Amino acid sequence: MIEVNNIEKKFTKYINKKEKKEFYADRKISFKADKGEIIGILGPNGAGKTTLLRIIAGIMEPTEGSVSIDNMNYKENQATIKQKIAFMSGNTKLYKDMSSYELLKMFGQYYKVPDKELEKRIKKTAKRFELTPFLHQRIETLSTGQTQRVSIARCTIHDPEYYIFDEATSGLDIISSKIILDFIKEEKQQGKCILYSTHYMEEAENICDRVILIHHGKIIKEGTPKNIVKETKTTNLRDAFFCLIEGEKNE
Question: pTM value?
């Protein structure tokens, strides 16, 4: 289980040498995510989604609050937790001079996957994400969709229990998007927990068990897509979100 407890993240922006401005990307965010769940983290640009996911993945430290994964914290159990999770953002940079095969092998070795097992996993992963036609091709020659599939594939090579995806399908063609979304659904069936940030409300409505709507760094609503739509008396998650932020303005 992932437990996020009262997370806050404060940044300092320097306007000039004498003047600075402090602001919060996230304020008092708490939720739990169980194994076998897909949790959508939704909101517009600047809502605080990426900062939150980076904190959960152990890439950033919160100003206040804590994150625990299977009752472990990063301070005392960082190596163990890193083996349990995979993090990927839409703008993750890959080594352009390497082939997809070389990248997958490098990540497998990093996570200490035995050599014989690693070769089996690379073969299985290449088939799963339809990488075989370009498996030995340099990454810099791949299309955006192919590169994103390679990026997700390298997240799976150590068979993590938790996935943290930030805009995984942003800007992708319909085929690459389907491959990634089908993978997410399959992993859910295997009991994996997926935190999934996206701009595409329709996408979240289709695959997420619960969604957490964030605006200006705060949770404005949490629940199943169906219940949120029902409570806001709208017909879809996109309209429900706009209804909720309009309600904020009127308060």
Answer: 0.85
